[in-house]
Structure formats: C-alpha cells, structure tokens
Input
Amino acid sequence: KPPGKRGGVRLRTAIAFGLPVLFFAYLLLTGQPGESVGDFVSHSASTWRATECGIFSLAIGGLSSAGVLFAWRRTDPLTPRLSGALAGLVGGLGAALAVGMACPTTDKLHLLFSHGIVVIAFTVVGALAGRRLMTP
Output
C-alpha cells in the first residue's frame, strides 16, 4: 500500500471504475421510459434540453475536477493515473448531482446522455491527466 493511502490500489480502482457503472445502473433503474432514440434526436425541444444539461454538466464537472486536481497536484508518485481518475470521478459526480437538482427531467435517454456520460468522461479525462498532473 502506498504511504498515506488508506485503501489499496485494488479498492481505489474498483471505486474509480465501478462507481460510474453503478451510477449508470441507478439512472437506468430510476429513469422513466420516455421517447425512443429517434424521437429523442428528432424533437428539437428534447435535444435542446439535453444539450443544455450536457453543457451545464461539463462546466460544473470541469470546475470541480480542476479544483480537485489542483488541490492534489504532484502528490502521488506511485499511482498518478488512478488518483487522476478519482479526481475526475469526484468532478463528474459533483456535476451529476448539481444538474440532477436543477433539471426536472426523468427520461432515461436524457439522464444517460446529459447527466450520466459526464461521470464516465471526467473519470477517463482525469485518468489521462493524472499522469502529468499528479506525478511529483
């Protein structure tokens, strides 16, 4: 176990990549069946609403992830990608929480494309950025 790390690498890896999967499962189970994919894409109101939520999610998640990465910069010589993925996960989940409170939509497709993908995207981007930002 790396010094100063409470959880082992396996536990942190399971959290970093298992939690987004569980979040997607949560969205699938709690979302209401709505429009088909064709209707979702072709209706400008649905597409616009999803785009608004997606942009808001990206903005909030970017700020959250950047803040966590900045606070943890140059702190992990052993597993920087994993720490970056966890920082991205924090930002993505923060964005999903913020958008979830602001957006009343319960349609499954909207939730997956506008709220859920952000969690996975920021986890992956955090893992990619972690190698450069987290290494002392």
User: Anything to note?
Assistant: Residues 44-72 form the longest helix (29 residues). The helical segments are 9-30, 37-42, 44-72, 80-102, 108-133.
